[in-house]
Design goal:
By secondary structure, this protein is of the alpha/beta class. The chain has 13 helices and 20 strands. This is allantoinase.
Amino acid sequence: MDLLFLSQRIYLGDGSHETPLNGGIIVDTGGIIRRVLRTKQEVNTYLYNTESEAVYDFGDLVLMPGLIDTNVHINEPGGRTDWEGFASATKAAAAGGFTTIINRPTNATPPTVSVQTLKAKASTACGKIYVDVGFWGGLVPGNMEQLGPQLAAGVVGLQCTLCNSAQPVGEEFAAINESQLAEALQQLNKEQATDALIAFHAELPATESLQLPDEAASKCYSSFLRSRPTSMELSAVELICRAAATQPQHRYHIMNLSCAEALPMLETCRRQTGVQLSAETCPHYLALAAEQVPDCGTEFKTWPPIREQANQAALWSALRQPDSTLQLIASDHSSATPGARCLTYGRGRGNFMNAWPGISSLQLSLPVVWTRAKQTEQPLSLAEVHRLMCWQPAQLCGLARFKGCIAEGYDADFCIWNPDEEFTVSGDQLYASHKSPTPYAGQRLSGVVHATVVRGLHVYQQYEGFGQPLGKVLLRKSSAKLVKFVRL
């Protein structure tokens, strides 16, 4: 028998209703939405005439499509599973209202740079994940012959970096240069993968002479910020725009953009070439500012860095424009041990130059974005949250035919939350492998997730905890659609 989900505030995200409706959603035994009841009268008629297996009434909580995060680091398989594994990462996702995440190719050992390593990662994930998981493939020097096979095997796209990652990941997933990018694009053309999605960590090594700080100065955030100037992002964006203008048939996406100065360059490139070019930014670039980072506060360190507060207004302004190049928000979630983050006691504590760059924030993305937006001149609407954290991510990764909105035939993936309820962030609330310190510790945030549903199954409930790890691996079957991976 079918399941029935009720709420007085259902946001469909299908373009038919900009405001939430009081209705219900009928879900079949396969976890697919069979029918949307758009009025209370339709609900009453259905309940009178039909028996359901179960009825879940969420009252006046908002029920909206499950969130999708396109930028999540997970350190499994390999020797750094204690940093973040599939179980802990997907629990954090579920507790944050996310029903699908896309895992980046880095951080696991070995990284995802071939069909063999993709299969190893997918096999490791099966049976451990609480939400659905897709994968980015890797583009590194020397794996040009593996680009087409990775796409054929089901990755959503190919991700590269233009500046070496922090060690030890930098040794395992090396940066590419402009000529290697051109070679990769030619290889994709040769294999007729002409609509491939290429994603970038967009920083180039600094060309200006930068004096590295001494040990004392290394514990000051301003010293670290000077070591990664905006020119690193701007020069990388210039390179990407040159490549896009030369090969406009491919799709290009910039991950975790922090520098608002790059936005006009991206807009100009897209307008002049007609290329499919997009970018994302992260909650920490919208909600945290360099001025508030304390000395030794390495929990704030990430690449590109959190910049000055003056940088935020242009990011928010671009996000509010539906036709902007800055199309979505993703967490760039990257958990690590306290030792790797230079957060343990000792002489090395608080050294920004040595600490692992990455912010563990997947679970907090929705309340951080919602709260910070309310503090701006123009708060986000539910429709804008849906567009930035659900629909556009689904579009980017090829999921939009069965995820991203509440409509007949779509997966019954729901985020149920109270936008007005407040809580104070503390480490014991978080489900990532390493819970504290977090840069949001002690902050008062609005937006509490009460339940997360994946294909009709409750994977998280605020007071009951987690269900079974019934998430599925998502692999692209063709350029047109993604399908669920059969459990290995």
